[in-house]
Structures are given as structure tokens and as C-alpha cells.
Design brief:
about 675 residues, alpha/beta, 13 helices, elongated, membrane
Length: about 675
């Protein structure tokens, strides 16, 4: 730690040197000057810029501690096969190659090795079964290599092991059930491999376990067989990106020190259990809860909104229903002001050279994947600085709670693709640390609150809603985002960055509605609906008369609406289509207009869906201008209008194939 430069050449003749500590400098060159230092016991030259191979260490028979991590060393482990006194072998983060075969001989010569740190190299081949003979081994780090084959069952004989990290390899087969006999093991890290089979219930016998990380494998089965009641020390449990299913493991409530629970990207289903059977709040130390991309349904249980230390909540891509609670005071972690986005940082975080993922001093270091700023972020955070809520792609409804404004530490908020309605709470503008806000694809109305113009907000998406009025201009709000933050949808919005000025929009709204040369959609605005509701008795008589008259003069109109299959055959007949093209288009226009007027209450509901409205309006505009419609597009619209008219409901349209613009969701 002195920023020393140069090489080790001047040490070549120090034949009685016993210890050399030169780590974390800027040394260059090779290890060759150490070749004749036969009395060397402690060698620490990690975190430099050394090159070459390990061959100069071949004859240092007394060497017990070798730390050469984080250099540019190459070659194989073969020069170390006879160093029988080694206690620590740390050559991680280099460019070493070959296999681990030299460890077979090393394990036969000595059982005194306690730390075997070979991670972040380019080793290939299988893990030697002989490693199970290292009875004093505490740390086994082989992650970030190219190792393949099964996990040796002999690793269950490492009776002193504290941590096994085999992540980021190409290991296959199952997780040996015998690993459950390792009573002193605190960390089992097997993520990012090709492991298959189920998770053995025997892991619950490892009562000292603090971190179980089995994510990104091909594991199947359930996790309910694990008796979490025995894992009282468990702080992190992540099995995301597997093929696990079944119910949520209720016994995890007993892990009172659990800080991270990640079950995302699996096939878990059913409703989440509530904790009514418990007299006290559960998981009071939980900071990260990721249940995204599963098949959970029902309402979000109350205990989730009462996790006092929660910082990352991700329930996205499920089928949750219900409303958000109006009281969020139980999320005390979001309310406290310790969090600051200025302190959020990515990259590798190490407490010390040996433990890359650790809970220490109240700080949780773990890899986290979140949806924010329009993309998925893979980050490794000190989690006391990250506060995120993601409820996107569910079926949540109701109004957005004003209590969101109390979550003052919130950094990312993603509620896209739900059924939220009403106005955007102005209290969201009180979130001074908010960097990303996505409320798109909901049914939000009224104006955009001026309070949203906080300069800290770097990403905003309000598209596919029904917002109206002028876009705020304070703090360069109107120029900070492009059109995609507001469009498609939000037809009544005006002002920069949209091309529509507010004055022009007002003028258009009060002008003629016949500009399209087709049925005008101005009849669906609020003024029309007020007039319509007042004149219902008169309107009913007129509509009935129009419908009866039309059906008498156009008998095939009813044929189209009630028999879409005949319509399809008619439309797919090329000869007849060319001969009757103008007639078909005129009939479609008149039919669509009549159905909209005679089923006004239904169209008033459907008109709240911007993506549906845009597709139909585009279809009629193209038809009226003489542009040939795609057959399936017209058929789909006709079929949908038919089912709406006949059934008085929208849900039935879910079974009808459709292809109109950006149609993505039916209510």
C-alpha cells in the first residue's frame, strides 16, 4: 500500500529472507528474483502488475502463505504441486490456465491447507475428488473459471469448511445431499452453473448457513421441503432463474435474520400466505424481496407492506390483484433519510480479500437485478443505498396512494402495465431522491403534477395513459424528456416536447369533427357524454330507429356483425374483394359508427384504452383514405365490435385474435 514501483530484482540475493509483504503496490516484472529464496515462508505480492509464471516458486519448500492475487500471472499450477507446507494458496484474479490436477498431489502431501483461492482464472476440467481430503480447509473459492463435471460428493468430508464458492462455471449434475452434514459451513455459493435436480432437504441440517445462493441453474422441484426453522442464522437465500415451483415456503418466516430473499424467475404459484397465524411481524430484517416473474396471484399480503428494513421490493411480472394500501408507514426503511442516490455505486465490493459477498456492519453486499430507467440493470450494490419498488406487469387497480410521497428514500418506482386509475398523486413530487418513474400503460387521468419536475428525476415514462392538459415546464421538465415519455396515448396532452401546442389543441377541440372523412371520434369526449346522458330517452328512440332503418336497407350489415366467419370468407376471396372493395369499406365505416353510437356505454369504457383507440382510429383513417386494410385487421375489429355489442363486456375479446397497432392488454 505504498505505491512502490519497479521490480523484485533487488531481492534476488536476500537468501535468508523469511517474509515478504509487498501487496497493493505498482510492482512489475516477474517472480524470477525469488527463485533462490529458499527460506521464504510468507509471500504477499498480490494486487500488483506482475507477469510471468509460478515456476520460480517451485523449490520454495517452506512456503506456507502465498498471496499472488490480482496480477497478470500465466501458466499452470504445476510448479506448486510439491509445496507441502502451504496453508494459504491465493492466486485468484490472474490468467492461469490448465486443470486442477496438480491439487491431487498437493492434497496427498499436506492436509494443512486452510485457504484455497483459485477463482477468476481460466482453469478447465473437473474438480478433483481428492480435495475432500483437505480436512482443515475453511475457504474453497473456485468460482469464475471454466470448470465442468459434477460437484464431488467428497466435498462433504470438508468438516472444517466455512465457505464453498463454485459459481460461474459449467458444473453439471445435482447438489450432493451429503453437503448437509457440513455443520460449520456458512456460505454455499453454487450459482450460474448447469446444475439439475432438486434441492435436498438435508441442507437444513447446516445450521450455521448464512448464505445459500443457487440461482441461475436448472434446478426443479420445490423449496417447501427445506425446514427453514433450523436455519436460524440464514441471511440470504437466492434461487432465482431456475425451474422451481410450488408454493411460497412459509417456514421462511422463521428466519428472523434473513436480509435477502430472491425467488424470482421461477414457476412458483398460488397466493402468497399472510401471517395471520403470527402474533409478531415477520422478517423484520429483510432488505430485499424479489418474487418477480412467477405465477403468484391474489392480493399482495399485508406483511409485505410492514417490512421495516425493506429496501428492494420486486413483485413484477405476476398476476397480483387488488389495490395498494393507503398506509405505507410500515416501510420504515423507505421513510428514513439515510439513503442517498449519490452514494449508489456499482462494480465489485469486497470487505476483505477472501469474502466477496458478505453481510458486515449493517451493509449487505449482493448482486441485484432490477428494472429501472427503461432497462434491466445488473448491479452489485451496498444495499443501504438502494431503494426500489417494482410492481409492474400485474393486475393491480385502484388509485395510486398518496402515501407514496412518504417513502422519501425511494430511488426507483416502476408501476407500468397495471390497472391503476385516477390522477397522479402530487405527493410523488416530494420524492427528492427519485431517479426513475414508470407509470406507463395504466388508466391515469387529469394533469401531470407540476411537482414531478424535480431535477433528480432522470427517467420518466407516462405513455399509454389518459393524461391531459399542459406538460409542466418548471426545471426544464418539458425539454428534459423526449416524446416517448408521453406518447403513445395521452391524446389530450399538449406542450413541449409534443408537436401539439396547447392553443392549437383547444382550437381543434372546439372545431369541426369531420376532418377524417369518416366517423368522428370527437363524439366520445366528455362534453358529448354529458349531453348523451341528459338525452338518453331521446337518444334511445333515435338509435333504435337508425339501427332498424339501416338493417332494412343493408341486410348484410347484421350478417357481418353476427357472423364474422362468413365475413372472413367474403373478404379473403380476392376476385370478390376487388369487385366490391368500395362497398365493403363503406359498409365497415357505417357499421362501426352505428355500433359505437348504439352501444355508447360500452364505447365510453373502451375509449379509455389508448392503445385500442389508436388502433381503431388508424384503421378507419386508412379505410377512408382508400388505403387497403389488412384482412385480418378488419376482421379482428369486426369480431371485437360484434362481441362487445352482443355480450356487453370486453373480457370475451381476449379470446379473439387481434392485430391493431400496439394492442398489448385488454381490461
Amino acid at each position: 500500500n505504498n505505491r512502490l514501483t519497479g521490480t523484485l530484482e533487488q531481492l534476488r540475493n536476500l537468501s535468508v529472507l523469511n517474509s515478504l509483504f509487498a501487496a497493493s503496490n505498482r510492482l512489475t516484472g516477474t517472480l524470477d528474483p525469488l527463485r533462490n529464496l529458499s527460506l521464504l515462508v510468507f509471500l504477499s505480492v498480490g494486487y500488483n502488475n506482475l507477469t510471468g509464471t509460478l515456476d520460480p516458486l517451485r523449490n520454495l519448500s517452506l512456503l506456507a502463505y502465498l498471496d499472488a492475487a490480482k496480477n497478470n500471472l500465466t501458466g499452470t499450477l504445476d510448479p506448486l504441486r510439491n509445496l507441502s507446507q502451504l496453508v494459504l494458496l491465493g492466486v485468484e484474479n490472474n490468467r492461469l490456465t490448465g486443470t486442477l490436477e496438480p491439487l491431487r498431489n498437493l492434497s496427498m502431501l499436506s492436509d494443512g491447507i486452510q485457504y484455497l483461492l483459485l477463482n477468476d482464472n481460466n482453469f478447465r476440467g473437473h474438480i478433483p475428488a481428492e480435495l475432500g481430503k483437505l480436512s482443515r480447509l475453511k475457504l474453497l473459492f473456485l468460482h469464475n473459471n471454466g470448470l465442468s463435471g459434477p460437484i464431488p460428493t467428497s466435498l462433504a468430508d470438508l468438516e472444517s469448511i466455512n465457505e464453498i464458492n463454485l459459481g460461474y462455471n459449467f458444473l453439471t449434475g445435482g447438489i450432493p445431499p451429503k453437503l448437509g452434514q457440513l455443520q460449520y459451513m456458512e456460505y454455499l455459493i453454487l450459482h450460474s452453473n448447469n446444475l439439475t435436480g432438486s434441492i435436498s432437504a438435508s441442507l437444513a441440517n447446516c445450521s450455521s448457513l448464512r448464505n445459500i445462493r443457487l440461482s441461475r441453474n436448472k434446478l426443479t422441484g420445490t423449496v417447501t421441503q427445506i425446514d427453514f426453522l433450523q436455519l436460524r442464522s440464514l441471511e440470504s437465500f437466492s434461487v432465482n432463474e431456475n425451474q422451481l415451483g410450488g408454493e411460497f415456503p412459509v417456514s421462511v418466516y422463521n428466519c428472523t435474520h434473513l436480509k435477502l430473499l430472491d425467488l424470482s424467475s421461477n414457476e412458483f404459484s398460488e397466493e402468497l400466505p399472510d401471517n395471520n397465524e403470527y402474533s409478531q411481524p415477520v422478517l423484520r430484517e429483510l432488505r430485499v424481496l424479489k418474487l418477480s416473474s412467477n405465477k403468484f396471484g391474489g392480493s399482495v399480503p399485508g406483511w409485505i407492506w410492514k417490512l421495516p428494513e425493506l429496501q428492494v421490493l420486486d413483485l413484477s411480472h405476476n398476476s397480483f390483484t387488488g389495490v395498494c394500501p393507503t398506509n405505507l408507514s410500515g416501510l420504515e426503511g423507505f421513510i428514513r433519510l439515510e439513503a442517498s442516490p449519490d452514494n449508489v455505486r456499482g462494480g465489485s465490493n469486497f470487505i476483505d480479500n477472501f469474502i466477496p459477498v458478505r453481510v458486515d456492519g449493517g451493509k449487505l453486499l449482493e448482486q441485484i437485478s432490477i428494472e429501472a430507467k427503461g432497462s434491466r440493470l445488473e448491479l452489485e450494490y451496498v444495499l443501504e443505498t438502494l431503494f426500489s419498488i417494482d410492481l409492474s406487469y400485474n393486475h393491480l387497480s385502484g388509485k395510486l396512494p398518496h402515501a407514496l410521497g412518504e417513502l422519501r428514500g425511494l430511488t426507483y418506482l416502476n408501476l407500468t402495465h397495471n390497472n391503476f386509475s385516477g390522477k397522479i398523486p402530487e405527493e410523488i413530487g416530494d420524492l427528492l431522491r427519485l431517479q426513475s418513474l414508470d407509470l406507463s400503460a395504466n388508466y391515469l387521468t387529469e394533469k401531470i403534477p407540476a411537482m414531478l419536475s424535480r431535477p433528480s428525476l432522470s427517467y420518466l415514462n407516462l405513455s399509454y395513459n389518459f393524461l391531459e392538459g399542459e406538460i409542466p415546464t418548471a426545471n426544464a421538465f418539458s425539454t428534459r424528456y423526449d416524446i416517448s415519455s408521453f406518447k403513445p396515448g395521452n391524446d389530450q396532452l399538449c406542450g413541449a416536447p409534443l408537436e401539439t401546442t396547447c392553443a392549437a389543441q383547444d382550437s381543434d377541440a372546439s372545431g369541426s369533427s369531420a376532418t377524417l372523412g369518416a366517423p368522428s371520434f370527437e363524439l366520445l369526449d366528455d362534453t358529448f357524454w354529458r349531453a348523451f346522458e341528459i338525452g338518453i330517452p331521446i337518444g334511445v328512440v333515435i338509435v333504435i330507429g337508425v339501427v332498424i332503418g339501416t338493417l332494412r336497407t343493408m341486410p348484410c350489415a347484421r350478417h357481418w356483425l353476427l357472423h364474422t366467419q362468413d365475413f372472413a370468407r367474403h373478404f379473403n376471396d380476392d376476385d370478390r374483394h376487388h369487385a366490391q372493395k368500395s362497398t365493403v369499406e363503406n359498409r365497415w365505416i357505417k357499421t362501426a359508427s352505428r355500433v359505437m353510437r348504439s352501444n355508447a356505454s360500452i364505447w365510453r369504457h373502451i375509449w379509455r384504452h389508448a392503445d385500442i383507440r389508436i388502433g381503431i382510429e388508424r384503421s378507419i383513417r386508412n379505410t377512408s383514405s382508400g388505403k387497403r386494410q389488412d384482412d385480418s385487421e378488419l376482421l379482428s375489429i369486426g369480431s371485437c365490435l360484434n362481441c362487445i355489442r352482443r355480450e356487453k363486456r370486453l373480457e370475451i375479446c381476449e379470446i379473439i385474435p387481434y392485430r391493431i397497432g400496439h394492442l398489448r392488454r385488454w381490461p
